Amino acid sequence: MAGDSRSFTATSRSQALVPANSTCPCGRGPDFYRIRPSLWAAAAFLAGSSFPRPTWALTAGLVLCCACLKWSVPCAPARGFTGPGVCRSLALLTFAFLVLGMLRGSSFRVERREAQALTGYGAYVRATVEVTGMPEYREFSMAVVGRLVELSCVRTAPAGIGAFGDQPGQGTAGRPAGQEGLAESDRGAVTGLVRFRPRIYLTLFHRQTVPLLSDGVRPCPRPGDPGSYNEGISVKPGDLLEVWGKIGNPETARNPGEFDWGEYLARRRIYLELRGEAGDIRVLGEYPASFLEWVRRARWTLCSRVKAAVQANFPRESGRYLLAFMLGDQSELSPQETDMARHLGLVRFFSLTGFHVDVAMRFWYWVWRKLFRRPSLARFGAIGAGGLYAFVEGFGPSAARAFICNALKLLALELGKEYDHISAVSVSALAVAAYVPDPLGDPGFLMSHGASLAAAFAPWLVPAALAPSILADFGELSLPGIVLGSIYASVGGLLLILVWLGAAVPIVSAFFGWIPHLVLAGFLSSAETLCKVPWLRLTGPAPNRWEMLGYYLGLASLWYFRSHAKAGSGSFLRSRVLFRAGARRVVLVLLAISGALLFGGSLSRVYVRGLEVVFLYAGEGDAALVRWGRRVMMVDTGAAEAFCRHVLPYLRHKGITKIDVLVLSHLHDDHAGALECLLDRAAVEKVAVPKGKGEEVRMGLSLSQRTGRIPEVMEVSAGRTYEVDGLLIEVIHSGAATTVPGKPMDRVLTASQDERENAESIAMFLKLRNFEGYVVEFWGDLPAAVTRKLLKTGGGEPGGGSGGAGSGEIRIAKVPHHGSRDSLCAGFYERLRGGYAVISVGPNPHGHPSPEVIGAAANAGVKVFRTDANGAVFVRLLGGKLRIDVYRE
Q1: Which end of the chain is more exposed for a tag (fewer CB within 10 A), N or C?
Q2: How far apart are CA 187 and CA 156, in angstroms?
Q3: What residues have CB less than 8 Å from 380, skipping those under 6 apart?
């Protein structure tokens, strides 16, 4: 039976070739012996496109072929097929889509390499860009996506160009307003059209804040003067812009747990970023439009009209949320509003699952069915409405999945065929993976298709399957978003339908516009209440791979319980039902493996074997984490802003909420500026400071009016060795001196405060008692004069010995003062010969690290790691061996 023509849902249980009550020769139910070519094709294509190495992809394809033959071929006779024929067909299909996936993945990687090679043109460029996306207007900048048409480099930076910084306003680059062009002598030798027109992300900062107009758009240039330079210029898809600025690769995460902006753009096939000033762009005209360009312009026109209608017909507060739900435009939400929406899980639920598209298509099917009484017209009308909805949302992975699955369901009803949900999800995955560069690394792709696939087995599996993925990708889990997902989908979908109708027909919003406002007011009121309940938003460490594997094995065993209990017509918790179903042995094995994986993964999180030192990226500052056993020591915190942006995500990622010892090498902002931020987010037992600085730190903590426990502040002394659970901490320098070493007496009074505090830094060596042969050194910001004095007096060797390269010890040293030229002294790197040096540095105006320091380390045979280039540096001492890994190659 093809299903009732009046129902949106097609049957997925009955079989056209096999009776619904038949059983498989291998004992599986009717849904398991389906031969689903789309499932194996999608799995092979995903494996080929996602694995960067061909050997990994071929191995995954071989595993898929074996699984395909194991699960499908023995059941083929039940469907009237011959085993060898099915074997050859499925193997050939799997291999063909594996090769297609490998070719598609390699094409994306080649595209990325060619785009990133354009950064070699030079830092400051003049680019011609075709606008392809909708502009996002912000308080300090405007952002838009385009395609690079022409590029020429500039030999000399125009006046007023700053550094390519991390924060808005620091990376502004452009030529002075009104300057028509640079002299020919200032142009680079490399200029011309870009062959493959890569996508580029433009960030244009405003020299001064330009207020928004009533419709939320900044002022446009004067009519008839499209070439004038205007601070509040407005652009649209199809415009051809001349932009001056600095080109580079988008900023990527440098510590685990950080938001990776570069990978986020790469998933949208954007590999370049250009930063300039909004006053230094010029609209040259419109680019000749192809079919795709007309499609993009039509989408922009439709979205602009919807946005204008929403802002005109709905109150401003509710209109901001409606635009965030409908178009994904969160630029007008305040940080507090964004946090409330995240607390309820509203925006995340809509953007990752696409269930609101399901509700919209069901609604339009019902509307067309009631209006025309013709099932065929209703089905194709619902498909058209769903396609338009997904088109406006940009055909993201979640919206595309919802549209494709529902369209296949309606087509199955129209053609009188059976609808199989697993096959539909496979077709959707195959279609979406064709234009998503890394589908298995895209949270929207994984969560949307994973939730839809879990729903095919049991509805209760959907929130259970999504929970660890959300925790791993976002670091927090909104219980309302998980529990109330179905309510969000139904209410939110119908709400957005009403908004769309109001935007298209103003009279609808005049009569019914108060309904979305009241619904959103209720949501916001509940959000304000729920935000006060701390346990409704769970924050925790990201599950590691062993924990994820153990969790999903346990989930599979639980589903196995229920499925066999239903087959036995009894409660799945009753052991006799399990025994009768023959599931006890399988379930016990799955549970044992799951428990072992969960226990091992959790143990590796809270207990570290040997010694682990992680030099974290903290911008211009320093931050390192030392772990051994169950102990945690932190050396410096970095500046407050860098701590919240780079260091804190790592602590959350690892689930570190308690620090036994915090060592502040000195009290400069780039080393100790985030002390209060750290105390607000973690329990710190002791704070170690240089000699003579204890009272200053205690006074600062007491004046901060903290309500929590104030940690114990202790001053460490040079020449002493402290031991904490087998870790030897030898302090070779700490505290103030009566003079600044290396300066004559007549220059002591003129030494700056910064120089004096640098000379007071704590320098220490770390060794495990039962782990000889390796030393980890921290030198703070000591100047060369102090370092030279310590080396001469033997303080530069553990235990005060003569040590060095000939002692047989391998040293890992944190380079003094971020690798500055003033920290370089003779003999420092020669004694590290055969060892390693770590430079903690970020974008800075001081020129750190100095080329002289890099050269001295290279000449001494010391391998150098930099946190700005390599990200976090992981040093692990275990089993008599040293292993050093970096977060970014």
Answers
A1: C
A2: 8
A3: 410, 414
Q: Where are the alpha helices (DSSP H) in 165-279?
A: 261-266
Convert the pLDDT of each residue in 505-520 to its tens digit: 666 666 666 666 677 6
Q: Among candidates 198, 200, 202, which has minimal Cα distance to 110?
A: 198
- What digits encode the pLDDT tens for the residues 144-196? 888 888 888 764 444 444 334 443 333 333 333 333 333 333 434 444 556 77
Strand 658-663 versus strand 631-635 pairing type? parallel
Distance set, CA 447 to CA 40, 355, 881 (Å): 19, 12, 39
**279 vs 391, higher pLDDT:** 391
pLDDT tier, 741 (very low <50, low <70, confident <90, very high otherwise):
very low
Phi-psi region of 864 (alpha: psi -120 to 50; beta: other; left: phi over 0): beta
CA 868 to CA 284: how far, in whole Å?
Answer: 38
Name every residue whose Cβ is closer than 8 Å to that of residue 412 and which is 6 or more positions away in sequence. Answer: 2, 3, 10, 418, 419
Confidence band, pLDDT 50/70/90 cuts, at residue 229: very low
The CA-to-CA distance between both ends of the chain, in Å, stands at 57
Q: Which of 590, 654, 585, 591 is nearest to 626 (CA)?
A: 654
Q: Tell me the three state secondary structure of residue 81.
A: coil
Q: Per-residue pLDDT for 275 more than 70?
A: yes
Q: Which tokens in the block code for residue 701?
A: 């903590």
* Helix 355-372 vs helix 397-415: crossing angle, to nearest 10: 40
Helix (H) or strand (E) holding 825: none
Task: Return the DSSP state at 310.
Answer: H
Q: How many CA atoms lie within 13 A of 428 on its CB side?
A: 29
* Structure-derived torsion over alpha carbons of residues 60, 64, 66, 69, reported in degrees to the nearest 10: -170
Block residue for tokens 């094409």? 107
Task: Determine the Cα–Cα distance for residues 207 and 220; give it in Å rounded to an integer.
Answer: 16
What's the Rg (C-alpha) of the chain?
31
Strands (E), 221-339: 239-248, 270-286
Secondary structure in 3-state letters for 570-604 = CCCCCHHHHHHHCCHHHHHHHHHHHHHHHHHHHHH
Closest CA to 127 of 253, 274, 249, 322: 274
Q: Shortest CA distance to 472 belongs to which of 536, 564, 539, 420?
A: 539
The answer for residues whose C-beta is within 8 angstroms of residue 636's C-beta and 6 or more apart is: 618, 621, 622, 623, 624, 663, 664, 665, 671, 672
Using CA atoms in the order 430, 433, 438, 443, what is the torsion angle rounded to 10 degrees? -80
What's the token pair of residue 347?
């925006």
* Tokens standing for residue 806: 């000939």
Rounded CA-CA distance 212/647 in Å is: 35
Alpha-carbon distance 734 to 722, whole Å?
A: 14
- Residue 450 near residue 466 (C-beta atoms within 8 A): yes
Distance CA 526, CA 353 (A): 22
Arithmetic mean of pLDDT, 721-732: 91
646-671 in b/e form (b: 16+ CB < 10 A) is bbbbbbbbbebeebbbbbbbbbbebb
Q: Taking a C-beta distance cutoff of 8 angstroms, is the pair 295, 484 a contact?
A: no
85 burial class (0-12, 13-18, 19+ CB within 10 angstroms)? Answer: exposed
Q: What is the dihedral of CA 133, 137, 138, 141, to 10 degrees?
A: 80
Largest Cα–Cα separation, the chain: 101
Please give the Cα distance from 753 to 228 (Å, whole number): 50
Distance (Å, whole) CA 784 – CA 188: 40
237 or 625: whose pLDDT is higher?
Answer: 625
Encoding tokens for residue 63? 């595993």
Whether residue 548 is predicted with pLDDT greater than 60 in this model: the reply is: yes
Could you give the strand order of the β-sheet that contains 771-778, starting from the edge strand earlier in sequence? 721-724, 727-733, 763-768, 771-778, 810-814, 836-839, 863-866
Q: Is the pLDDT of residue 813 over 90?
A: yes
**Angle ∠(228,232,233) on CA atoms, nearest 5:** 50
